[in-house]
Amino acid sequence: MWRCRSRRRRKARCSSGWRPPASTSSTGSSRTASRGPSCPGGFDLAGEVVELGAGVSSFKPGDKVIAINFPNGGGLAEYAVASASRTAARPPEVSAVEGVCVPIAAVTALGSLRTAGVTVTLDDPARAPATPKNVLVTAASGAVGHFAVQLARMGGHNVTATCGARNLGLVRSLGADEALDYKTPEGAKLRSPSGRKYDAVVHCAAKGLPWSVFRPVLAASGTVVDITPGFVAVVTAILQVATFSKKRLVPLIVTPKKEEMELLLGMLKQGRLKTVIDSRHPLGSAHEGWAKSMSGHATGKVVIEIGAAQP
Fold first, then answer.
1. How far apart, in whole angstroms, are the C-alpha atoms of residue 251 and residue 202?
2. Cα–chain center distance at 86
3. What ranges does the record list as Basic residues composition bias (predicted)?
4. What is the pTM of this model?
5. What CATH number labels 105-251?
6. What's the fold here for domain 2-101+275-305?
């Protein structure tokens, strides 16, 4: 639920999540309202509007919504505050648990692909790119990765995915036509089984990889987008710009847009996009969800449910 004040809104019984590489969301209710203090989670939210702030006319009390509260968080509570401009109506066909995966994970996946120059068509499934690209998604069974695989495939591109052995079947079912166990020699080197050179790499793994691993598998003008760049990745990117390198590493910067959330929710409603949920935890066990998320071995999203589960 939400209360908006001068373009901000407070929400109760919410679903919220932690920032990638964490793959956690939460749904539910507590008794306190958060105005955005720094906290370890609660960046992506799903819940019900309870109050509107001055000048907010796009929602009404009782509306089911999703929102993003990055970087302040505050979603691990019954009541939370969010900006109306970063909130989207959730269709009844999309559950709170499914919807809460959109603001951080799905939007990050979409932004990563677009940053890498990969065409993703959200509104017209029949329209394919003139020239399909070879796309690699690392940690493809994770919170962001499983969306990136689906979106790239929907765009008509060739998708290679890396993940653990137990999830090879999953990533294939999501649209990857090549799947690599990252623990095998070929998987560790990111080598395509068919010898493809990648036009785009969406690097979702929490652990950074040296540029020497990416460079041999990239096409002449290939781009690697790192969703959680560290210091080395940032320095590498700066040096590549300075030396006019055609092969590039790009640290991801995503500004979530309401319109993107609405389009992605529409795809979930239509069944074109699938959300994979690793596990669901009550608020009292949020630390268990956090630990699972940070372990790097969650399959899809980890959800924290606060109070009664929402439809």
1. 10
2. 15
3. 1-13
4. 0.86
5. 3.40.50.720
6. Quinone Oxidoreductase; Chain A, domain 1 (3.90.180)
Domain segments of the chain as ranges: 2-101+275-305, 105-251
Report the C-alpha gap between 82 and 34 in whole angstroms.
Answer: 9
Are 87 and 75 in contact, with CB atoms under 8 Å apart? no
Domains 2-101+275-305 and 105-251 share a fold: no
Per-residue pLDDT reduced to its tens digit, 143-202 = 999 999 999 999 999 999 999 999 999 999 999 999 999 999 999 999 999 999 999 999
DSSP-assigned states of every residue in 46-107: EEEEEEE-TT--S--TT-EEEEE-TTT---SSSEEEEEGGGEEEPPTTS-HHHHTTIIIIIH
CB atoms within 10 A of CB 277: 19
Question: Coil, helix or strand for 136?
Answer: strand
Q: What is the DSSP letter of 142?
A: B
Three-class DSSP category at 164: coil
The C-alpha atoms of residue 71 and residue 280 are separated, in whole angstroms, by: 23
